[in-house]
Amino acid sequence: MMPRSVLMALLLALCALASTAHAIDPLPFKDRAEEVRFQNLARQLRCLVCQNQDLADSDADLAKDLRKQVFDMMRAGKSDAEIKQYLAARYNDFVLYDPPLKPGTYLLWFTPFVLVAIGAIALLRILRRRARAAVGEALTRQSGQPKNTEEEDW
Amino acid sequence: MNRLLPLLGFFALVGLLGFGIWWNQHHEMNEVPSPLIGKPAPEFTLPLLYDSTKSLSKAELLGKPYLVNVFGSWCVTCQDEHPILTKKVKPLGIKLIGMAWKDQPEDAKRWLAQFGNPYDAIVSDVDGRTGIDFGVYMAPESFLVDAQGVIRYKRIGMFTPELIERELLPEMAKLGIARP
User: Fold this and answer.
1) B110-120 in b/e burial notation, b at 16+ Cβ within 10 A?
2) Is any Cβ of chain B less than 8 angstroms from the Cβ of A50?
3) Does the beta-carbon distance from A62 to B128 stay under 8 Å?
4) What number of C-beta contacts closer than 8 Å exist between A and B?
5) Rounded distance between C-alpha atoms, residue A23 and residue B96, angstroms
6) A29 secondary structure, DSSP code
7) What is the ipTM of this complex?
8) Nearest to B34 by CA among B123, B143, B171, B124
9) What does the pLDDT read at residue A20?
10) CATH number given to A27-99
């Protein structure tokens, strides 16, 4: 009889193995390179049924069909871009995990930069004002006149 | 003014989050708008469910608007939609084409025998390839196709009487189909 802890460890190891194994239906890849290309492509495509999973991970029936479709198109000599375009034309750019840059996605792509720029401008203004206030204070101290600084520091 | 800035920022954030809540409640989270609207429906030639020796193609349907309803006997929502198709959509007088999607013909026939057949014609898409061409991802889905074979409207999920009133009928009116 094995100690409980050993059993537990074995069980956990088994679970880990099971989760790393691919949930993917076996597709007849001709070599390793083709399989890698397929996996890479399937990871960039979203499963429409369970929308937070990519096509490589999803066990949904439609995902299986779409994987088959991708595989067949690869075999037919289509490029990755062509396959992605085929799916995006039918299922919306939503299938692509990497959204394309176009007028409809400008907001998505550029908002972060705009926000950083606004932050940088605000920071610069605050720093300048403080620098000016510090200089002013130094000057008033030099001439010996007391002065109330109106600046707020928050 | 400077003192008010954090408060304004706060209200801007409240506004943004409030919009988020409103938005989530007013649109279907899983619904992906179809890029096929306004584009020609994909070409297809599929065997008829009740006579697999014959087939129906897009070319044969040109000339009159029609509504393609994608269903499957495995699809629970299709069962809910079925009486609405029978009672509310069929009387509209538009040609109703059923597409048994990813369904074995025997299962589809059994399902229709049980619930009734509201369709003018039913095609069988067993391997789901035509469904993929149409960008179908969850049954039921319906496509309104005009006389020129262009997809004018798509419904993802079941029709309800309200949706027929609010979306389908106006789209049909645009094609010149008066309500009966």
Assistant:
1) ebbeeeebbbe
2) no
3) yes
4) 42
5) 38
6) -
7) 0.78
8) B143
9) 43
10) 1.10.8.640
pTM: 0.75
The pair of structure tokens assigned to A38 is: 């397929």
Q: Which two tokens stand for residue B84?
A: 């609405």
Residue of B nearest to A91 (CA): B135
B132/A66 Cβ within 8 A: yes
Q: Hey, is the C-beta of A121 within 8 angstroms of any chain B C-beta?
A: no
Dump pLDDT digits (tens) for A121-134: 999 999 999 999 88
Residue for token digits 């409809």? A104
Q: Between chains, do A48 and B102 touch, taking CB under 8 Å as contact?
A: no
- Which amino acid, residue A111? T
pLDDT at A11 > cutoff 80: no
As a whole number of angstroms, the distance between CA A30 and CA A53 comes to 26
pLDDT band at A144 (very low <50, low <70, confident <90, very high): low
Give SS3 for B88. helix
Where residue A15 falls among pLDDT bands split at 50, 70, 90?
low
Interchain CB contact of A118 with B (< 8 Å): no
Higher-confidence position of B106 and A100: B106
